[in-house]
Amino acid sequence: MDRDVRIVIAEDDALLREGLALLLRAESLDVVATAGTAEDALGAIDTHRPDIAILDVRMPPTHTDEGIRAAVEARRRHPGLAVLVLSAYVEQSFATELLTGGVGGLGYLLKERVGRVEEFLDVLHRVASGGTAIDPEVVAQLFTRSRQDTRLERLSPRERDVLALMAEGLGNGAIAGRLVVSEGAVHKHIRSIFAKLDLSPADQTDRRVAAVLHYLEDARRRV
Questions:
Q1: Measured distance CA(222)–CA(177) in Å, rounded
Q2: Neighbour tally for 95: CB within 10 Å
Q3: Count of CB atoms situated within 10 Å of the CB of 50
Q4: C-alpha 121: how far from chain center
Q5: N or C: which end of the chain has fewer CB within 10 A?
Q6: In the sheet that 106-110 helps form, which strands lie side by side, from edge to edge?
């Protein structure tokens, strides 16, 4: 990721906020502002027009969903803004509220992943580049809640594995490496997933994202 990528960080825990800023700056990334509240975060985003905003889910004053609301509002004001939301816990309704609002430049990650620097930077890079990345633990729990969906029941166990890795934001090569199969096999599984989820090649949206959002939306209805 270039230093030209501008980042705003919003986190009410000062130690984590400054630690994250130091980490990113040590990687030669351009952290243009930090904020401790959702309101300040929106102000910083309006002022600095960053390429990506990193926001905590729970922020003052109520510590419930201020970060998610700020993320949604920031995307409304600045449609090209990439957003990576951090949470201490798996909060499925918040994940789906954010991710079903758009089809690119969005990520939802557990805070524990920040300590895995290489993995965290990879996710940040993918989201800033317009991709979608969902924490593997969130994916696992959403799949559990979505098992009663008729179309999802059509998927084979291997196709579920592929869809879960797609949800994490991995490309075909990375999925092949994770599952120890060929890229051709992954491509075949993805075509089958699209067919079983009734996603037509004529659809204007990104079918990879649409496949992921299909079961996210189903999970939200069940929360």
A1: 33
A2: 27
A3: 23
A4: 13
A5: C
A6: 30-35, 6-10, 52-56, 82-87, 106-110, 132-134
pLDDT tens per residue across span 26-66: 998 999 999 999 999 999 999 999 999 999 988 988 888 88
DSSP H/E element including 9: strand 6-10
Instruction: Kindly report each contact of residues 65-70 with a partner whose C-beta sits within 8 Å and lies 24 or more positions away, as own/partner.
Output: 65/94, 65/97, 66/37, 66/38, 67/10, 67/38, 67/41, 68/94, 68/97, 68/98, 69/38, 70/10, 70/38, 70/39, 70/41, 70/42
User: Rounded to the nearest 5°, which phi and psi values hold at 31?
Assistant: -85, 105
Q: Which tokens is 111 given?
A: 């805070």
More confident position, 185 or 102:
185
- Of 150, 102, 109, whose CA–CA distance to 130 is shortest? 102
Tokens of 33: 């502002």
Could you tell me the CA-to-CA distances from 15 to 19, 103, 111, 115, 139 in Å, in that order? 6, 32, 13, 14, 28
How is residue 171 annotated by DSSP? -
Radius of gyration of the chain from its Cα atoms, rounded to whole angstroms = 17
